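Worked example 4.2. Below are the chains of a multi-component assembly; read each line carefully before continuing.
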Amino acid sequence: EDKVVQSPLSLVVHEGDTVTLNCSYEVTNFRSLLWYKQEKKAPTFLFMLTSSGIEKKSGRLSSILDKKELFSILNITATQTGDSAVYLCAVEDNAGNMLTFGGGTRLMVKP
Amino acid sequence: KAGVTQTPRYLIKTRGQQVTLSCSPISGHRSVSWYQQTPGQGLQFLFEYFSETQRNKGNFPGRFSGRQFSNSRSEMNVSTLELGDSALYLCASSSGWPGTQPSYFGPGTRLLVL
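Applying the procedure described above to all two chains together yields the following structure tokens:
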């Protein structure tokens, strides 16, 4: 059974801080790892990672995957209050577009 | 391109009733997946349909069922509703090929069972 564990469970930082969110996984036939941001609505897509060591970047957010150690990190630099959300990590295996989600990391950015 | 749409957005039902939720995927996407989100269990996979066939199924009782039509629109049905079925039901659409494109989520249907 596929398993995804995220840490920390929650995080409170101040605007301008840098945060690192962690995701470790166990999956039988790994295909991809995805990061989503969820505010009070549906998850919105951030990154999809399939290869080790290649950093994906979008503005102040970046993410990298380590397929040997089975983990990924999501970095947010110069945090803003608008970054406050739950960040979800999910893995996809070869069986199809079925995602196994971690429990999420709740990030609160204070002004 | 229009995003994933779900109807209705909110529903209130009573125990024992049944409910049907609808999802229209992004144009050109052939895979539709359904998830249940609750505060206690997080996001849990219900089932996935690809080209009108159920390709994957999660660990939910048989009261939860779904189908997909030839235009890729999907419906899920929950029969004999229980209080514990109160949740946000999310639909996600994708191209259908793992690792090629992400799944994009619709706004969800919030179901309250009284």
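Take a moment to check your reading of the output against the notes. Chain B touches chain A through 26 residues (CB under 8 Å). Chain B has a mean pLDDT of 94.
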